[in-house]
């Protein structure tokens, strides 16, 4: 299992992008997602699920995710999240 | 009851003696006679010019429960509507129906007077900003009535919309009430929407910041229709009324849509000597004007007339002789206002001449081609321009359904996705324009032809244009965005969408 060692972010708040902020969480606390999106009713559940799946696929079980969505498509969300994971798990000062 | 476009319409609606469901663009045959203003007489010695708005409101006899109207040519620079409603509120008059030709963001200033019950009903073309949200939240005593420009003219002329007092922002006015829109510090150009109000309201107040010696010239609204004149320091903000000449879009997506639109027109069979054209004021529409202009020059085609909502690109085409005449209900920029003032081939027209379906025939009936924008479209070619994807009112019906019904070729342009939201849906949130009057939908990923237009399909299939089935377009969008969950609404009707003939094409229900 990978774990998040420090706060990191990726993405922007430009139209069609998403800003992901990843922070460490207590072991066993699970994945907590705070999502701000212009389309909560239409895509809120899908975006949360994608974030959860992507984190799990990268071996992360505990995290605090703040996602500020500006209408991003799935591949954008995934790309930003993976970058944030790499930054959050890398040694401080790296990447 | 379920209407012809499959929408569930309540059997009764506040404000309607009889609810007529939409049953086709030309299904309804009107009967009866036109309505009219109350007869009045003016003594030669009488003075129409009053010292204040307060005096004018008193002089009209405005009372609780009456209907007041305004025109929206001043757009986001309008001071008149807010000032008049504010003044009425101070007099303690309540329960008014507000019936402007449209509402803009600047009119959010009247929200306190909706809360306090001065304005309890709204009949208009559309609303934006906080006003749109307020209507969508059901804060009015009865559902708002949304009409197209032609539908509003029809409703006024047949008496369904009975205006007690029309307040007309008059950029140039004389003491007898002759008005034009082309002179003065608040010049807005055409007075097309106000013309209908002036002709049919029981009382008409001209509000001006440019009182000129009698007679004003030219005369768009004649003194015979005006009861009182009030002079204010300023009736509008020129920067909000008209922009400078708009830049042509550099947005590659809009440019691609515009290129497709111009190519569809070129190959449609309607691109012939003497054809007629209306363009919307959206980015893709304006960009299309450039491409159409080049094609007209290249093929040496002269059009008969253009219709607007006039913008500078259309004025350029008039000046170059690419169109013989421009018909104008509203101007969006300074070059258009100048052109209306100086070019005798640039003609001002009323909203009724533009689009009233229950008349001897509005100019939209003679249109060959119109390019319209859309908020959403659906696989049945229905178009929404009034509510956003959350079901909140944030747009206007305008001339959309009027021109789509009248024109031989109605082209709707929209991006395939806005942010993550697909714009080709199974069902649009709200139908303003029925799919049976829409011929082609153009996106940056391809275009779809209404299957009933087999003639158009035949003409376009041998071109290099990316002609797809509407379902294929939807699939492309859904593959990128995922299928959106539908937005739940309550049963409470907050707005009624009238088709141009007065039938009910849809209702807006309060979002949950």
Short description:
With 95 residues, chain A is α+β, with helices and mostly antiparallel strands. Chain A has helices at residues 40-57, 74-89, and strands at residues 8-11, 18-23, 31-36, 63-69.
Question: What do you see in this structure?
Answer:
The complex is a heterodimer of chains A (95) and B (512). Helices cover 36% and strands 24% of the residues of chain A. By secondary structure, chain A is of the alpha+beta class. In chain A, a hairpin with a 6-residue loop joins strand 1 (8-11) and strand 2. Chain B is an alpha/beta fold and 512 residues long. Chain B has 2 domains: 63-241, Glutaconate Coenzyme A-transferase (3-Layer(aba) Sandwich), CATH 3.40.1080; 252-493, Glutaconate Coenzyme A-transferase, CATH 3.40.1080.10. The longest helix of chain B is centred in the middle third of the chain and has 16 residues, at 252-267. The two termini of chain B are 23 Å apart.
- CATH class identity of the largest domain in chain B: Alpha Beta
**Strand order, sheet with most strands of chain A:** 1-2-4-3
Instruction: Provide the succession of SSEs of chain A.
Output: EEEHEH
* Low-confidence sequence ranges of chain B: none
| DSSP summary, beta strand count of chain A | 4
| Low-pLDDT runs of chain A | none
Number of strands of chain B: 26
Total number of distinct structural domains of chain A? 1
Write down the Rg of chain B.
Answer: 22 Å
Strand coverage percent of chain A: 15-25%
Q: And the CATH topology of the largest domain in chain B?
A: Glutaconate Coenzyme A-transferase
Overall, the morphology of chain B is: globular
Biggest beta-sheet profile of chain A:
4 strands, mixed
- Helix percent band of chain A: 25-40%
Radius of gyration of chain A, CA atoms, in whole angstroms: 12 Å
Average the pLDDT over all residues of chain B and give the rounded result. Answer: 96
């Amino acid at each position: 299992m990978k774990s998040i060692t420090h706060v990191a972010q990726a993405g922007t708040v430009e139209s069609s992008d998403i800003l992901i902020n990843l922070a460490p969480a207590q072991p066993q606390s699970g994945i907590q997602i705070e999502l701000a999106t212009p389309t909560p009713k239409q895509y809120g559940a899908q975006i949360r699920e994608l974030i959860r799946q992507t984190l799990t696929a990268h071996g992360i079980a505990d995290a605090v995710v703040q996602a500020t969505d500006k209408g991003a498509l799935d591949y954008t969300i995934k790309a930003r999240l993976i970058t944030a994971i790499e930054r959050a798990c890398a040694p401080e000062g790296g990447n | 009851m379920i209407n012809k476009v499959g929408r569930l319409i309540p059997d009764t609606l506040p404000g309607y003696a009889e609810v007529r469901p939409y049953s086709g663009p030309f299904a309804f045959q009107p009967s009866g006679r036109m309505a009219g203003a109350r007869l009045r007489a003016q003594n030669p010695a009488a003075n129409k010019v009053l010292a204040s708005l307060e005096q004018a409101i008193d002089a009209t006899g405005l009372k609780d429960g009456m209907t007041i109207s305004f025109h929206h040519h001043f757009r986001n620079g309008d001071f008149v509507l807010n000032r008049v409603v504010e003044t009425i509120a101070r007099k303690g008059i309540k329960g008014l129906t507000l019936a402007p030709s449209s509402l803009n963001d600047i009119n959010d200033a009247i929200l306190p007077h909706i809360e306090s019950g001065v304005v309890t009903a709204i009949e208009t073309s559309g609303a934006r900003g906080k006003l749109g949200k307020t209507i969508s939240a059901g804060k009015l005593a009865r559902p708002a009535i949304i009409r197209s420009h032609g539908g509003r003219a029809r409703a006024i002329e047949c008496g369904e919309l009975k205006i007690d007092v029309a307040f007309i922002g008059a950029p140039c006015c004389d003491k007898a009430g002759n008005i034009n829109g082309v002179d003065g510090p608040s010049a807005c150009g055409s007075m097309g929407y106000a013309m209908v109000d002036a002709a049919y309201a029981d009382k008409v107040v001209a509000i001006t910041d440019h009182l000129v010696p009698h007679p004003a010239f030219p005369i768009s609204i004649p003194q015979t229709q005006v009861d009182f004149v009030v002079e204010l320091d300023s009736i509008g903000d020129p920067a909000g009324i008209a922009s400078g000449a708009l830049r042509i879009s550099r947005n590659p997506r809009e440019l691609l849509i515009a290129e497709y639109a111009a190519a569809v027109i070129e190959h449609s069979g309607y691109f012939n000597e003497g054809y007629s054209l209306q363009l919307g004021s959206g980015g893709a529409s304006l960009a299309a004007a450039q491409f159409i202009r080049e094609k007209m020059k290249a093929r040496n085609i002269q059009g008969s007339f253009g219709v607007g909502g006039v913008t500078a690109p259309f004025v350029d085409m008039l000046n170059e002789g690419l169109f013989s005449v421009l018909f104008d209900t509203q101007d969006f920029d300074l070059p258009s206002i100048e052109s209306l003032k100086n070019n005798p081939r640039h003609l001002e027209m009323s909203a009724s001449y533009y689009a009233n379906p229950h008349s001897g025939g509005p100019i939209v009936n003679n249109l060959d081609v119109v390019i319209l924008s859309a908020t959403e479209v659906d696989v049945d070619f229905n178009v929404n321009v009034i509510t956003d994807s959350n079901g909140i009112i944030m747009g206007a019906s305008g001339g959309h359904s009027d021109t789509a019904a009248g024109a031989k070729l109605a082209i709707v342009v929209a991006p395939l996705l806005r942010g993550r939201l697909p714009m080709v849906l199974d069902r649009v949130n709200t139908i303003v324009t029925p799919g049976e009057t829409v011929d082609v939908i153009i996106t940056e990923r391809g275009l779809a032809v209404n299957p009933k237009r087999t003639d158009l399909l035949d003409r376009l299939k041998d071109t290099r244009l990316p002609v797809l089935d509407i379902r294929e377009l939807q699939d492309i969008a859904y593959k990128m965005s995922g299928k959106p969950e539908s937005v739940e609404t309550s049963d409470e009707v907050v707005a009624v969408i009238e088709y141009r003939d007065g039938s009910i094409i849809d209702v807006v229900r309060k979002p949950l």
